[in-house]
């Protein structure tokens, strides 16, 4: 049922008195003559909460979960030969084909920043004689150590510190001085290396 003008005006006036009890009658009548009413209600501003970044595992948790452990049945040299072939192709692509006329400095610079998982390396010099002669495929590279699988299917953990590693691909031979190479693989890509003739262990 439609209301007449007077009934509607009375309803709005009563509604405003209830909604805004502190406002005087004169002020309410003044608002009605403007034919526009803004109710005094302020919404609370929502605080923007900071998005929490998902946290990864801590080093302790990774050790407890054995995320980087290589199971004994997976410690077989032949199992990783396809990985080595993939690595060689990766280096050839990285070094524009590794042509015979390629500059050794360019190849050395690329190798220093390349991912070495799958590379075959040999320890040529070491302050610990027992490390000298170890040859195998790099299965894991960490900040301070290489995990290498040898042809005898033995997993060797070789520290980078005080060791020199020899790496050969398509006739190019490169030497890695582990003491100057103590970075994670992800960090090396942005690292600037200075090429030097000889470096002490």
Overview of this structure, please?
With about 200 residues, the protein is α+β, with helices and mostly antiparallel strands. It has a domain at about 75-190: Ribonuclease P/MRP, subunit p29 (SH3 type barrels, Roll), CATH 2.30.30. The chain is about 30% helix and about 20% strand. It is built from six helices and six strands, in the order H-H-H-H-H-E-E-E-E-E-E-H. A six-stranded antiparallel beta sheet has the order 4-3-2-1-5-6. A hairpin with an 8-residue loop joins strand 1 (about 120-125) and strand 2. Helix 1 crosses helix 2. The longest helix has 15 residues, at about 5-20. The chain is elongated. This is Ribonuclease P protein subunit p29.
List the helices and strands and how they pair.
Elements lengths: L4 H15 L5 H9 L25 H7 L15 H14 L9 H10 L6 E7 L8 E7 L3 E6 L4 E5 L3 E7 L2 E6 L7 H4 L13
Antiparallel strand pairs: 1-2, 1-5, 2-3, 3-4, 5-6
Helix pairs in contact: 1-2
Poorly predicted runs are: none
- Identify the CATH homologous superfamily of the domain at 75-190: Ribonuclease P/MRP, subunit p29
* Distance between the ends: 99 Å
Mean pLDDT over the full residue set: 81
| Major sheet strand order | 4-3-2-1-5-6
Helical fraction equals 25-40%
CATH class of the domain at 75-190: Mainly Beta
- Here the CATH topology of the domain at 75-190 equals SH3 type barrels
Structural class: alpha+beta
Overall body shape = elongated
Number of strands: 6
Strand content: 15-25%
Number of helices: 6
Overall CATH architecture of the domain at 75-190? Roll
């Amino acid at each position: 049922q439609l209301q007449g003008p007077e009934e509607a005006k009375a309803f709005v006036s009563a509604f405003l008195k209830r909604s805004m009890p502190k406002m005087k009658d004169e002020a309410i009548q003044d608002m009605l003559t403007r034919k526009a009413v803004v109710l005094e209600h302020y919404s609370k501003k929502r605080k923007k909460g900071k998005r929490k970044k998902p946290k990864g595992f801590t080093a302790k948790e990774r050790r407890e979960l054995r995320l980087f452990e290589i199971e004994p049945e997976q410690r077989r040299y032949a199992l990783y030969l396809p990985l080595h072939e993939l690595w060689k192709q990766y280096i050839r692509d990285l070094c524009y084909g590794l042509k015979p006329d390629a500059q050794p400095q360019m190849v050395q610079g690329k190798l220093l920043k390349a991912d070495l998982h799958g590379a075959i390396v040999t320890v040529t010099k070491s302050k610990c004689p027992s490390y000298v002669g170890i040859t195998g495929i790099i299965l894991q590279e960490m900040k301070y150590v290489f995990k290498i699988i040898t042809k005898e299917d033995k997993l060797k953990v070789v520290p980078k510190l005080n060791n020199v590693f020899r790496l050969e691909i398509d006739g190019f031979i490169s030497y890695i001085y582990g003491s100057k190479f103590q970075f994670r693989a992800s960090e090396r890509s942005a690292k600037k290396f200075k090429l030097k003739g000889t470096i002490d262990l």
